[in-house]
Design goal:
With 108 residues, the chain is mostly helical. Helices cover 77% and strands 0% of the residues.
């Protein structure tokens, strides 16, 4: 379960970076060359999702929980926004949902 969770966090970072770099280009006047590492990051994201042994729908559902937590950590540490208690509670609930989903993967 730890390995799967860690893989989900790496996957989420690849997705967020792949979306953040075009954001920097479009909204913050960044260089258009940011699209090259963005495309590579999104390709990495897709490949990482294929490394899970479960059916794709289960992988996407479980991944969502980790994505919520990772996005909030990005918001806090990259964007510098203060998180509310409800942000943390929501992230914990989402992670709990992910753990419930992956705990049943071996039964299929």
């Amino acid at each position: 379960m730890f390995k799967t969770t860690l893989l989900f966090f790496v996957t989420a970072l690849a997705e967020i970076i792949g979306c953040y770099l075009p954001y920097l280009w479009l909204r913050r006047g960044g260089n258009i060359l940011l699209l090259l590492p963005a495309a590579a990051s999104l390709a990495l994201f897709v490949w990482l999702l294929t490394l899970h042994p479960a059916a794709s729908g289960r992988v996407y559902a479980a991944y969502g929980g980790v994505y919520v937590m990772t996005a909030l950590l990005w918001l806090r540490y990259v964007d510098g926004a203060k998180l509310a208690t409800t942000d943390w509670v929501g992230a914990i609930v989402a992670l709990a949902g992910m753990l419930i989903i992956i705990s049943g993967w071996k039964s299929y």
